[in-house]
């Protein structure tokens, strides 16, 4: 079979350089199956694929590449066998420099808009725990296949930070208002099976390769469909959420910076980081 592992940064060097000071393409790899036209983006930032500034920049470049090269589909998964993504890098949020946190949150917004609003068909193979920002990443895709025995959800309530509008909108659009409210207000993490029950994921499988097959099956369903019509329909379907968040993006970012920088939130983040350190 003809596989081409693309160093994304060959083509997007300019973009990535202007986005990031991290070393080029260190946190993920993009592999295109030239026979199917489906690319797999494998997150590879040990130990937990936390979303640092550099990670978000590379994710943005990958999504942009998928759009520019008109891939038939994009599958997002993790190279780790235990963690899909632990979400935002807590070190970016704890004792942040004011300019950096502003730019970090703007970057997060940019990536989210790019992925959520992209015309490329997308699927997530969640082969490990998927927490907060990790859950957002999966929810921004169209289809989710989850490997059993892991946890997924948005735990902000337990971390002591508010769930931001972008995260709420995504959760609501997938599981509905009431289920989202019940889950988000207590920071509930669902097992794979519970996630299936509530509609947070579309399928539960026994392992990653089975998950990839299911995701490919979903993406192959569009073979006979006009890519242009499909892409436009997806955008129309998602435009209400996007429009609202675009309209208020600067207001949301500034408010969040203020909240994150507050003493109470910083104390909670510090305690959360301490708990993680002490769990060993
Ligand atoms: C308007 C636009 C703006 C949008 C909104 C923006 C911001 C709003 C404000 C906040 C939003 C926050 C959303 C988030 O995503 S916050 C992150 C929440 N995530 C977590 O709490 C995950 C915590 N991690 C875990 O539960 C476990 O690590 C996990 C189950 C993922 C894996 O467990 P495992 O046992 O395999 O690994 P550990 O030993 O726990 O961890 C290994 C190592 O990694 C460090 N680490 C874990 N998670 C993070 C993280 N999110 N960021 C940074 N570092 C992390 C952990 O501390 C260990 O480090 P070390 O001890 O080995 O040094």
UniProtKB/TrEMBL annotation:
Keywords: Acetylation, Fatty acid metabolism, Isomerase, Lipid metabolism, Mitochondrion, Transit peptide. It comes from the Eukaryota. GO terms for molecular function: delta(3)-delta(2)-enoyl-CoA isomerase activity. The keyword Mitochondrion applies. Its main location: mitochondrion. GO terms for cellular component: mitochondrial matrix. Homotrimer. This is Enoyl-CoA delta isomerase 1, mitochondrial.
């Amino acid at each position: 079979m003809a596989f081409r592992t693309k160093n994304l940064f060959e083509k997007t060097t300019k973009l990535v350089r202007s986005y990031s000071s991290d070393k080029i393409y260190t946190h993920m790899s993009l592999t295109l199956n030239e026979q199917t036209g489906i690319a797999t983006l494998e997150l590879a930032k040990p130990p937990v694929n936390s979303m640092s500034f550099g990670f978000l920049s590379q994710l943005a470049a990958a999504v942009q590449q998928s759009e520019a090269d008109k891939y038939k589909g994009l599958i997002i998964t993790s190279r780790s066998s235990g963690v899909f993504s632990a979400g935002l890098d807590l070190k970016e949020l704890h004792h942040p420099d004011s300019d950096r946190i502003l730019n970090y949150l703007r970057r997060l917004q940019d990536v989210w808009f790019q992925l959520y609003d992209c015309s490329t068909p997308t699927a997530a193979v969640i082969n490990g725990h998927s927490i907060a920002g990790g859950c957002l990443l999966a929810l921004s895709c169209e289809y989710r296949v989850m490997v059993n025995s892991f946890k997924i959800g948005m735990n902000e309530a337990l971390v002591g930070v508010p769930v931001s509008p972008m995260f709420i909108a995504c959760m609501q659009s997938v599981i509905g208002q009431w289920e989202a409210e019940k889950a988000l207000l207590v920071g509930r993490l669902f097992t794979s099976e519970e996630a299936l029950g509530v509609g947070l994921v579309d399928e539960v499988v026994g392992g990653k390769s089975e998950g990839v097959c299911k995701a490919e099956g979903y993406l192959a369903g569009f073979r006979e469909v006009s890519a242009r019509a499909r892409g436009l329909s997806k955008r129309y379907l998602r435009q209400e959420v996007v429009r609202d968040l675009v309209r208020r993006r600067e207001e949301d970012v500034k408010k969040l910076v203020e909240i994150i920088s507050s003493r109470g939130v910083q104390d909670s983040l510090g305690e959360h980081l301490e708990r993680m350190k002490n769990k060993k």
